[in-house]
Amino acid sequence: MLLDFPFSAPPASGETREVAPGMHWLRMPLPFALDHINLWLLEDERDGQPAWTIVDTGYGLDNVRALWDQILARLDAPVTRIIVTHFHPDHVGLAQWLAEKFDAPIWMTAGEYLTAHAVFHEMAGHGTQPMLRQFTHHGLDAERLGALERRANSYARGVPALPHTYTRMFDGDRITIGGRLWQIRVGYGHSPEHASLYCADAGVLISGDMLLPKISTNISVFAVTPGADSLAQYLDSLDRYRELPEETLVLPSHGLPFVGIHNRVAAQHAHHEERLRVLEDACTEPRSAADLLATLFPRELDTHQVMFAMGEAIAHLNRLEYAGRLVRKDGADGVVRFIRKQ
Question: For the whole model, what pTM was predicted?
Fold first, then answer.
């Protein structure tokens, strides 16, 4: 389904581009196959004086800090608020560093703030060992399990520090930024309480990772919630975007800004239904999530990608089980497998 891309290319490293009045786009590098993240600077005011609000902060690398320093040196006013859409390291990674620079509060939903701390400290069911146990239960082989274990807590490498106070955001909150009202729209499936920001007056949605123009966002089941129907939660969240006008300018975390929100929501539904059909057809015999990785992802996966691929495979298998299209079989070897319902 066709989308309209108002901008043919991103801003250069260390530069910004105005995408709507008072809204500026910057792009930072990532050390993964997905090699970039889009961040946003919004013109704001505090006590009648010009100010800036940052939305998402980038991965905690020295080169990202250096690019931020270039951009911050050109700002004509202080940063007085930092909004983090969700806990993933490319979004929250430098939030505390930026907050300390400007003595600025960090705004997050409770689910994202608390999950960030749980993952960072590998506690309450989060961390490498619970993940390895979950993937073992879903049939991942010893070699790939070992590679994941050697990565240890990769989250802390991208998030050098986290805040110990925050301003809590709730679904439906309306906050004023630069004289405009922005609505907080919480979505599920990709992360616990992902916050997107919608400004009706400007016709702009900062979608974070909930809606991307080219790739589908990762939908995973995590060890702490093994029975989660993450895919259903995500698709239900996407349907709320149908409430927004089709001409809304979507500012995503990856890829280019686009117009065509209804078409993109429909395409995501179609994509995931096709993935569900492929898995269902593959389960004529009992198959584990690990058995099905090549079915879902017919390409070579690095260790980082295996982690996301396993989470996504489990999410789709859970959805098929909840829909009554697959039956779960717990094997004597401790591996859970799924078979098509007769």
Answer: 0.96
